[in-house]
Amino acid sequence: MTMVLVFALVASLVGAEEQIGVIYGNIKLADGTPPRDAQIHLYGEGFSGHSVWIENCGGFRFVYLPGGTYNIKVTAGGFKTLILKDVVLKPGSNPRVSLTLEKK
Exposed/middle/buried for 26, CB within 10 Å: 0-12, 13-18, 19+? Predict the structure, then answer.
């Protein structure tokens, strides 16, 4: 009986790991430099959203995400709001996106 319970627990944990992924990438300006004070918001169906600030090098990362379709919104002072729609995260995948901001 104990062995069956342990097996069921391990099987459920393995299945849960396959449902988690990462969306990551970088943001730059037209000249290739990273923007200052840019904020990135990730949202999607059944996902209330999460915001992060970019790193000094322009990198960002959203971790522990369930599979699904997401949108990314980037805002920064003096630049047009950028929205990237339909970023598909399949279980166990880690899509990388590269974004370029345009001046207003």
Answer: middle
Residues 52-70 as b or e (16 or more Cβ within 10 Å = b): eebeeebebebeebeebeb
Per-residue pLDDT reduced to its tens digit, 46-85: 777 788 877 788 999 998 888 899 999 999 999 999 999 9
**pTM for this structure?**
0.76
- Structural domains present in the chain: 20-101 (2.60.40.1120)
Tokens linked to 89: 């995260």
- 20 dihedral zone (left: phi>0; alpha: psi -120 to 50; beta): beta
Residues 6+ apart with CB under 8 A from 7: none
Map residue 15 onto helix, strand or coil: helix
